[in-house]
Design goal:
Blueprint lengths: L1 H18 L9 E3 H10 L10 H11 L6 E3 H15 L5 H12 L16 H6 L22 H4 L18 H7 L1
Helix pairs in contact: 1-2, 2-3, 3-4, 4-5
Pfam family, one: p25-alpha
Organism: Scleropages formosus
Keywords: Cytoplasm, Cytoskeleton, Microtubule
């Protein structure tokens, strides 16, 4: 009973790593990049007994000749290959259980993801109230961009020169006389 529960946790981890970074992935097959990520994130790669090269070799060994992905069954074979290497002092069965414990319930980590920079220089450069010249025309008073109207010179067919301050006052001036 306990082994069945362990296998479901292993399958859940397999699916989470299989779909990581691929919007079209179904979770039934895992590519080599995600296999390497699983091994790295779950500490299967220890740098001494198991290296990234070993992980790549095992992936190539268990996948079908003309395939670029492995199924869950091939994934289990790959773990059986790596377990004795990772846990040399244990028997094959104990090593396999130990490697399963490393992977069960884990999901891809997002360490190293680029964060938004919050520095004074960035704040100063993105403060639209300090913009001058033609750049100022691209934003309204609140700092929100005007979109196309701020980027392109849209022609108004009023008969006046663009940006003429007294536009529309001709009628008033001629009535005054």
């Amino acid at each position: 009973m306990a082994e069945g529960a362990d296998m479901t946790f292993l399958l859940v981890s397999f699916k989470k790593f299989a779909i990581h970074g691929d919007t079209k992935a179904t979770g039934k097959e895992m590519n080599g990049k995600n296999w390497a990520k699983l091994c790295k994130d779950c500490k299967v790669i220890d740098g001494k007994n198991v290296t990234s090269t070993d992980v790549d070799i095992v992936f190539s060994k268990v996948k079908a000749k003309n395939s670029r992905v492995i199924t869950y069954e091939e994934f289990e074979k790959a773990l059986q290959e790596l377990a004795p290497k990772r846990f040399k002092d244990q028997s094959k069965e104990e090593a396999l259980q130990s490697i399963h414990k490393l992977i069960e319930g884990k999901e891809p980590s997002n360490t190293g993801i680029t964060k938004i920079a919050k520095t004074a220089a960035v704040d100063r450069l993105t403060d639209t109230s300090k913009y001058t010249g033609s750049h100022r025309e691209r934003f309204d008073e609140s700092g929100k961009g005007k979109g196309r109207g701020g980027r392109e010179e849209l022609v108004e067919n009023t008969g006046y020169v663009a940006a003429y301050k007294n536009a529309g006052t001709y009628e008033e001036k001629t009535k005054a006389k």
